[in-house]
Specification:
Layout lengths: L2 H21 L20 E3 L11 E3 L4 E2 L8 E7 L4 H16 L5 E7 L4 H11 L7 E2 L4 H5 L9 E5 L5 E6 L7 H12 L2
Length: 192
Amino acid sequence: MRQIPVVVRILAATTLAALLYGLGGCSKSPGDLTGLNTGAMANLQLTKSPAAEPSTVFHDAKGGAHTLAEFKGKVLVLNLWAYWCAPCKEEIPSLARLQTEFAGQDVAIVPVSVGKGDDEVKGQAFLAQNPPLAFYTEPTYALAFAFKPTIEGMPTTIIYDRQGVERARLSGGADWSGPDAKKVIEALLQAK
């Protein structure tokens, strides 16, 4: 008779632990992106062995030089795109909405255009219609080839944590304004 209460307590504790795990209470640590590549983020590839971030210089609309290192301390969503690329232009408004959603938080959405000449001019005008995104350009493709592995197509989005470590990539267009993308950014914001 004495063993029944012990068995009941063990069963109750096991059931509670399983329930908490299933609800997410014990399943993930802050910054863990495992399982967040679903829905609109289904093509998100978690980075297993991040290489050093490229030090390649890109420029803002006024010609100012920038590197990825200056965004450390923020969750960085780096989007390589071009005006001539239809899926790129389709996803830019959703990136603008994502930046608006996280306004005032340590999140930087940085679209870098790889177009040159007339495409660069049109790209800058296009981004001006999608505030609050700022225009950045690197028309030589040096930035795209500086990544390991290299970027193979446009658009490609690379997500960095606050320490400047690449955490995930998404090749192809995506809806960055929905709940799936927000979960990814929120997970990285929770990690200090």
